[in-house]
Amino acid sequence: MGQEPVAQPLRETGRLAKVVRTCIGCRKRSDKSTLVRVVAVQGSTATVVTPDLRGTMPGRGAHLHPAIRCLELATRRKAFGRALRVEGPLDLDSLATVIHESAE
Ligand SMILES: [Zn+2]
Fold first, then answer.
1. What is the CA radius of gyration of the chain?
2. Residue 20, Cβ neighbours under 10 Å: how many?
3. Tens digit of pLDDT for each residue in 1-49?
4. How many angstroms is it from 93 CA to the middle of ligand 1?
5. How far is the CA of 89 from the centre of ligand 1 (A)?
């Protein structure tokens, strides 16, 4: 609760506007195109954290690096529930599969 990202020095002035998002795992800011967007899809027993590889799924999204480390960090600090505003059990299997594949 109340964890705001550390303030960044204002260095990006006059540059081309780049879309930057914060990874919910390592909390580093990265170009959106290098991050995986995930959305919460309600399943029968758990909320499925679904990778949105085309960036077209509706709903509240969260972003993280396609890295096992970031997945583990996000899982450990329960960042998915917080970022996606969902409570209860989360199913991270499909996201983990995608991340393990892209991390190879
Ligand atoms: Zn990360």
1. 14
2. 14
3. 455 566 555 555 556 678 999 999 999 999 999 999 999 999 999 999 9
4. 18
5. 22
What contacts 57, CB < 8 A, 6 or more positions away?
A: 37, 39, 50
Residue type, 25: G
Give the start-to-end residue ranges of the domains of the chain: 21-103
pLDDT tens, residue by residue, 48-94: 999 999 889 999 999 999 999 999 999 999 999 999 999 999 999 99
Answer for the pair 70, 26: CB distance below 8 angstroms, yes or no: yes
Is the domain defined by 21-103 classed in CATH 3.30.1230.10?
yes
Its pTM stands at 0.79
How far apart are the CA of 76 and the centre of ligand 1, in A? 13
In whole angstroms, give the CA distance from residue 66 to residue 57. Answer: 18
CA of 77 to the centre of ligand 1 (A): 13
